Amino acid sequence: xxxxxxxxxxxxxxxxxxxxxxxxxxxxxxxxxxxxxxxxxxxxxxxxxxxxxxxxxxxxxxxxxxxxxxxxxxxxxxxxxxxxxxxxxxxxxxxxxxxxxxxxxxxxxxxxxxxxxxxxxxxxxxxxxxxxxxxxxxxxxxxxxxxxxxxxxxxxxxxxxxxxxxxxxxxxxxxxxxxxxxxxxxxxxxxxxxxxxxxxxxxxxxxxxxxxxxxxxxxxxxxxxxxxxxxxxxxxxxxxxxxxxxxxxxxxxxxxxxxxxxxxxxxxxxxxxxxxxxxxxxxxxxxxxxxxxxxxxxxxxxxxxxxxxxxxxxxxxxxxxxxxxxxxxxxxxxxxxxxxxxxxxxxxxxxxxxxxxxxxxxxxxxxxxxxxxxxxxxxxxxxxxxxxxxxxxxxxxxxxxxxxxxxxxxxxxxxxxxxxxx
Length: 422
Description:
By secondary structure, this protein is α/β, with parallel strands linked by helices. It folds into three domains: 14-21 and 277-420, 3-Layer(aba) Sandwich (Rossmann fold); 26-146, Rossmann fold (3-Layer(aba) Sandwich); 173-272, Nitrogenase molybdenum iron protein domain (Rossmann fold). The chain is 44% helix and 16% strand. Mean pLDDT is 90; it is low at 1-8.
């Protein structure tokens, strides 16, 4: 699949809405980031609500000592009766004394810490000066500033300045950007090795303190569409982004890998030989579900910023009809190749006015509505079939070997509807 140049395509009309939102905050990204980087610890400076959100979302009990915690801002802190810097220093000291295995500590801002203007970047610098063996960084997961997957973007953007500077004249290196399950990372590493690209790093890697060198020799592929700040930070170091669709489905993964092949001068025959087995497996796996999905309509509520690539996959490879694709933010440059592959005339919406979008869902009555947990049950009660958007983030869905699983995530709600129909 080689999409036409986005510059040659008519620019789509995009509706922009601002209003009430129904989406998780950026703290949710800690759920998958703490599993990806076992030498990192995430300390949220927030309220008891923040702590309850993380514990319930991660499904981990506190006594299991996960690699995240919440420094609770109490009423006396909010009232200015306590020295917040001293309180934070005390918590961090106790944490690092108890967990000597921590090599990277993230101080994560929340809504309460943003409201009281707690300067976490300054605190991170101060604390880091006293702990030479621990890299202490900060980023915001506040719902005021971030939505859901943007927490990962903020975290990775905070890591970029810590990466070594790539040497002048170094051999080109491919960097895959975005947190991926280890099994998917291994599959991509084998694919690029089969293509003859041996210098490949992943960001974030499985060890948070072992960062790849970044410089003019770095060529990076985004594995996730919500990494705008991270891509900008890499570009300031001289790295070059390889424009491509995202690796969802047989065709999306092929085009994504082909962008790397073209940048690294891989022989076209070798590229085709490398991707052919995986591509055929993916096509067969998708075909088992495409028969059920073909002709079905789907409406995406804004949630994770995966909406546009997933709509492209479902339309092009499964025969579904997107009746509207809403996304929290639409990065036109990063999504240019995806937008060019959507069915002509697909309605696109950036942002959220939840009541207006629910009105359109009720009017269109799509076969599947992809939405957040808080909207799913009310819509189901109205007779509409829904798909939880959060499953699309927590389930491995990238690459050839997960393409069938991705398609199955959309056949499940249809099967459930058929079973429950009286």
